[in-house]
Structure prediction request, 1134 residues.
Amino acid sequence: MRLTDFLPIFGWLKYYSRNDFHGDIFASAITAILLVPQGIAYALLAGIPPQLGLYASILPPMVYALFGTSKTLSVGPVSIAAVMIASALNAPEISALQQPVQSAVILAAETGVLMLIMALLRLGGLVNFISHPVLTGFTSGASILIVLSQLPPLLGLAKPLCVGSFSCYTNTVQTANTSTLLTGLGALLLLILFGKPLTGLLKKTLMKPAWITAISKCGPLLTVVLGAIAVNMFDLNNAHQVATVGHIPANLPELRFNAVDTAHWRHLLPYAALIALIAYVESVAIAKTIANIKGEKIQPNNELLGLGAANIASALSGGMAVAGGFSRTMVNFSAGARTQMAMLMAAVFVALAVMFFSPYFAAIPKSVLAAIILVAITPLIRLRNIVNTWRYDPSDGIAEVMTLLGVLVLGIEEGITLGIILTLVSYLRITSHPHIAVVGRIQGTEHYRNIKRHAVKTWEHLLLLRVDENLTFANVNFVEEFISDQLQRQPDTKHVVLIFASVSYIDSTALEVMESLSATLKSLHVTLHLSEAKGPVLDKLKKTDFLSHLQPGKVFFRTQDAVNELA
Amino acid sequence: MRLTDFLPIFGWLKYYSRNDFHGDIFASAITAILLVPQGIAYALLAGIPPQLGLYASILPPMVYALFGTSKTLSVGPVSIAAVMIASALNAPEISALQQPVQSAVILAAETGVLMLIMALLRLGGLVNFISHPVLTGFTSGASILIVLSQLPPLLGLAKPLCVGSFSCYTNTVQTANTSTLLTGLGALLLLILFGKPLTGLLKKTLMKPAWITAISKCGPLLTVVLGAIAVNMFDLNNAHQVATVGHIPANLPELRFNAVDTAHWRHLLPYAALIALIAYVESVAIAKTIANIKGEKIQPNNELLGLGAANIASALSGGMAVAGGFSRTMVNFSAGARTQMAMLMAAVFVALAVMFFSPYFAAIPKSVLAAIILVAITPLIRLRNIVNTWRYDPSDGIAEVMTLLGVLVLGIEEGITLGIILTLVSYLRITSHPHIAVVGRIQGTEHYRNIKRHAVKTWEHLLLLRVDENLTFANVNFVEEFISDQLQRQPDTKHVVLIFASVSYIDSTALEVMESLSATLKSLHVTLHLSEAKGPVLDKLKKTDFLSHLQPGKVFFRTQDAVNELA
Prediction:
């Protein structure tokens, strides 16, 4: 165990070059320009004051920079985690407490602690719990919910959009505020123009790609600045009821953590568990995408450590739960970031912005922030993907659709839980059918091969079965069924030999089933034997009374020995 | 599809013999003698009026007899399901409704419907969801809870036993009612004597085993009768405050089902899901144990159908959720039951008892019923099993202990959920490491074998990898890691060939990872190829653009073809 195993920053910092610095400082400015409006917008999306998003953009990326193995992952507030926080805060038992800020901070702390526990237990492989179809279905569903939630602030509706009946719908839409609508749609138009149209235009000027990224990513900042200017110039918030962000304290976050109300923590725990899972899985997916491009490596357990520490740092500094953001990471990478120094410096820029520009944030219209969220979230709705998945594998397609519908109809947590259950059920169905073959001897040799594929010698009283997989609770019943089917086909069998050459693990359920199988076979006057069992498997079996229950069945070293004695 | 696939009763009824009838009628009388006190006791354990247990002993076993594949399973009220019902009824959102009877009936209906849905989806394999250690840990934990819950009625305590402090404990124990205590301990003593001591004595008389079973199983009936006589003779319930069962309506259940309160149903659904899972898993385990002894077969999907229909029948006739009971089934079997005709007749006996003896049930002391539950439940507490499991496989041992502690500390539902999660996590950890081997050619042949086990020819620019398992979301990351590790060891590699001879399924997550792997390898100037892919796998891949993304990588029919072209 070396220091760099825990703190990868000491691995790369000593080789840090001037070139690295040039790339990092440029990328850090661009990423900071994105972080400020995103921090405010995602906090509002989560239903908490904007400073919780800003605070989550300062300490957490710094802490991640120390522990994380991804060189370009941009850790901070992200939309999917924000909507999961909103969902937790809206749950009856949580909203009844009427402490949304406290709840959001506890959620971040619990998310961090859970990630650290997962790191400690080396559960980085938990990423395998969620298949791509389920993750895509979940992301699409959550993104649709986000889009729907942003329509009222974008249009300036007085109440949530109602789609129950046409009259109810028109009544709600009629509450739209024209000034809000105009600023919102104006921001939306500007942001869309800053996307493909602008980059297309800039590419024709043969500008450097890093500069094209830089300019096109100033869209959110520009809309926010223009929106705030418009509010001040036309007195939009007083004279025209355009909702704005309002006062944000100009001080940096204080490090503290008060009040452990155990009931409050317990209520939030299931939500934190799902946020931790999704935040981890999404972050690793993003980090891996970039690492693959750069030929680098991600260590899942280090990522758990880094993300866990970042979330605890967020909670300690009064911020919301954080994760790696897809679009921001891509921007950081394509703006030329070489190391996590870029995110360290971006965090410093955000801190400076909070200290010196907070008074100006107050005038940002909420409709502009809604437009920023809409533009960021729309690419995450990937309905086309469902068609492709379905065409390739209908059971995966069903899992994707069910997860998406689950999120929309039942709710965020219910949807992802449903998706995970569906994945596991289909996985168990697949893996509960282990490879198992009836084998016979290739004439003139001591090799034993599948009777279906080779011309081999078999014996009327002897059944040789090669089990090709580890025996566990999930597949041992299939093995039992297989043997009983074979015995019906070959009713004169007196001895069954299980060839365990490929078996390196037998769990205790499988052991019990094998014991009862041996007893059942005895009552049918058939003896069960083993052959070619590996040393560790045999050592474990010797700790139990399985081998004495097996008697008169034996354990043969080689299958040939069994044939010599029993055939 | 034949009729007997759904209604196994038509398979055996036409061969029904006089001998079968002799065995069945005798067993039915013994089982009915057990069913009546158990029905009353388990209903009280669930916290509902006794008739719900009696009604659950009439129609459900009859319906199971039509659909079930086990010839001797005794379906009716069982202790574990009863304590799960009690837990559901005590949940804040359920107990707030103050409709325990209605809730218990809805639980039975939902349990039945969920089982039928599982049968429809052919999810009989769900039995694989729960490993033996988790099931044993759960059963032990739930049984301990049952024992603790029966101490107050046994001792006649005025309030639940309190173990928080010594003074609190003594205060509670001092509320014990001497008369209740005496009837309870008397019943306990009688039941214990009717166990091993009596059967040991009877065996010496060379009596027929079936008669020994019969006599020893009359213990519960005898204690109940003696208890009721004592209550009447000494006026125990009025003069000495001995709690008794109280009035039970003497009419048979009416078939009806009123009021669908969707919120009520939705609240109960998660509890019903866990009851359905446990009831199914326990019933199949019992049915299998007996079927193995008799050399018969259990069809898991038929069991789901039978148990589902039985639960719906229970709900329709105003009863509680049912399952196959272990001790009752063993009694039924050892008393000589040959077919489900025994349970059909036992149900008729219970119905007659309800019609003609209900007035007498009122005087049964609750302490006697508590004694019956205690004697029935104690063998299910298998703490010794934990030691054995732990010694054989520590990770299984941890799952067993955690499940048991989960049940005791967190609650019934939380405990079993924790156990299932632990099983799945450990399962994913094991199965996420697929067999994968670097292979080379055995000189002078076209056979390719593992380089670790055979002296084979390999090539500097060519890496041949044989993947021995289906590729899924759970193991594809390991394959990716394996390939990148191999490339680091063999840096001159230009071509990687994946030999898919053993792969018969690639899920869509694995497909996506393979696509990104191919792209990553391209950027490192390495080309990915496939060989020996099976027809169905190739057909599925052709539906996607994977093969065009693979180019210039190819799909070779034989590995030899790949070597001829690339080596």
Summary: The CA atoms of residues 151 and 182 of chain A lie 13 Å apart. The first strand of chain A starts at residue 75 and ends at 76. The beta strands of chain A are 75-76, 323-324, 436-441, 448-450, 462-467, 495-499, 527-531, 555-556. The mean pLDDT of chain A is 86.
